[in-house]
């Protein structure tokens, strides 16, 4: 929420009911201060140890976001349960020793919001209408779209909708209901939630809120040629990166760390050894990911999560702390092939040094008799085998791999 003095200033400015510029020229680069008020129910959310909310340690924050927009956002929440938020605001002000009447502060925010969202007065409405008419006259003519008769197809356009629906899992009460439509965009996240034992919650923190995002394991940027290569190695007719099986659900800040290469999901050692010894490593015995939807029980795999040595620790007063080191194995329906691809891609670019210490510590803590450096090197070797071309630049199919190597 904006600071109380800002709300008083806005009340005085808009008390005439007129129209005023929201963005003054002098405000373009201005940084504003805000109160961070946590909802009381946050304490009751099921969150994994090491990832619990830390809002009780957060005071005010600074942001370039404009107070007008923050006030409108706050007003929408206040109208849902004003008394609850008044109490939360009162507790916040007491904690940071801010002398403010919480009830009056809330009323100021609501008064401003009501004024801004009310129908404009006659004079202001006339001015607004004239401005819209002038803008319409000055707007360039729209482009005329001439049909070419050609059909364009987006990349990775084939949907992976399972015949017969997704009635296959009874492992967890947190499983999400079957979504409607194709697994695309936000619907892709819903399908991934339906498959995952943790449902729509973050795989690491177990938080369930709007900040949880779908994260591609084999990156979305992977080109069609590479998808064709790995499909052959995985015994698939084709591989589409936009599959619910290629999605981890992670909190937004953890998603960012994942995209930056700070986190690695490592399958169990026996799986790594098995894939290293095989040519084709089928995914669930199916020729397509769509057919996995038909099975009565989707396989679930165990992963250890290791952080790169350059990943900084979260600050003591962080609102969203994370302690990767305390995590044991997590379970996911994402096939190990995809996790090894992601890990191998990172290891091919930066080597194993950044992850070796963390993986070694995990193995020792959980009594896993395996050398961390071997796991990392083997995953890199498997990945490089999957994406390799022959001397002429042609795709190496696993069926001819042994012949070509002679």
Automatic annotation (TrEMBL):
InterPro entries to which the protein is assigned, alphabetical: HNH_nuc
Sequence ranges assigned to domain HNH nuclease in this UniProt record: 202-266
Superkingdom field: Eukaryota
Compositional bias segments (type: Basic and acidic residues): 167-183
Region Disordered, residue ranges: 131-187
One Pfam assignment: HNH_2
Protein name: HNH nuclease domain-containing protein
Organism: Rhodonia placenta
């Amino acid at each position: 929420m904006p600071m109380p003095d800002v709300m008083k200033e806005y009340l005085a400015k808009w008390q005439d009911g007129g129209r005023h510029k929201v963005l003054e020229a002098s405000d373009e680069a201005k940084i504003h201060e805000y109160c961070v008020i946590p909802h009381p129910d946050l304490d009751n959310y099921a969150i994994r140890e090491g990832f619990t909310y830390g809002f009780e340690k957060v005071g005010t924050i600074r942001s370039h976001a404009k107070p007008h927009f923050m006030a409108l956002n706050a007003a929408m929440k206040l109208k849902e349960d004003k008394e609850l938020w008044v109490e939360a605001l009162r507790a916040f002000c007491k904690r940071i020793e801010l002398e403010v009447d919480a009830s009056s502060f809330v009323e100021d925010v609501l008064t401003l919001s009501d004024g801004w969202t009310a129908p404009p007065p006659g004079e202001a409405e006339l001015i607004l209408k004239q401005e819209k008419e002038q803008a319409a006259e000055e707007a360039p003519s729209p482009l005329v779209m001439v049909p070419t008769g050609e059909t364009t197809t987006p990349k990775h356009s084939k949907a992976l909708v399972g015949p017969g629906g997704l009635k296959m899992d009874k492992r967890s009460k947190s499983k999400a209901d079957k979504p409607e439509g194709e697994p695309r965009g936000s619907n892709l996240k819903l399908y991934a939630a339906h498959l995952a034992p943790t449902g729509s919650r973050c795989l690491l923190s177990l938080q369930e809120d709007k900040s949880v995002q779908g994260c591609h394991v084999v990156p979305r940027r992977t080109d069609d040629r590479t998808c064709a290569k790995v499909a052959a190695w995985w015994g698939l007719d084709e591989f589409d990166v936009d599959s619910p099986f290629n999605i981890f659900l992670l909190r937004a800040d953890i998603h960012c760390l994942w995209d930056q290469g700070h986190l690695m999901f490592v399958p169990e050692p026996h799986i790594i050894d098995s894939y290293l010894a095989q040519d084709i490593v089928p995914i669930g015995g199916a020729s397509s990911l769509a057919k996995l939807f038909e099975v009565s029980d989707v396989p679930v795999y165990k992963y250890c999560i290791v952080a790169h040595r350059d990943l900084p620790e979260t600050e003591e007063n962080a609102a969203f702390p994370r302690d990767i080191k305390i995590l044991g194995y997590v379970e996911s329906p994402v096939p190990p092939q995809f996790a090894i691809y992601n890990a191998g891609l990172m290891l091919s670019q930066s080597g194993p040094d950044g992850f070796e210490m963390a993986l070694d510590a995990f193995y020792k803590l959980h009594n896993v008799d395996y050398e961390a450096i071997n796991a990392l090197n083997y995953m890199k070797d498997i990945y490089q085998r999957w994406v390799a071309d022959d001397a002429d630049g042609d795709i190496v199919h696993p069926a001819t791999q042994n012949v070509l190597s002679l």
